[in-house]
Amino acid sequence: MLDFLDFSFLDALDILLVATLIYYIYKLLKGTVAINIFLGIAFIFLIWKITQILKMEMLSNILGYLLSGGVIALIIVFQQEIRKFLLMIGTTNVTSRTQFLKQLKFLKSEITLETDSDTLLSVRALEILNDKSLAFAANNGVFGLYNPNKDSWVTSKQEFDTLNLQFRAVAHTSSDFFMLSIESPALLYKTGDTGKMQLVYKEGNQKSFYDAMRFWNDQEGIAIGDPTEDCLSIIITRDGGKTWKKMSCSDLPKSNEGEAAFAASNSNIAIIGEETWIATGGKSSRILYSPNKGKTWQAFNTPITKGLPTTGMYSIDFYDALNGFAIGGDYTKPDDNKDNKIVTNDGGKTWQIVAENENPGYRSCVQYLPNRAGKELVAIGFKGIDFSNDGGYHWKHLSDEGFYTVRFLNDSVAYAAGSGKISKLIFKE
Question: Could you give the CA distance from residue 197 to residue 157 in angstroms, rounded to a whole number?
Answer without folding.
Answer: 10
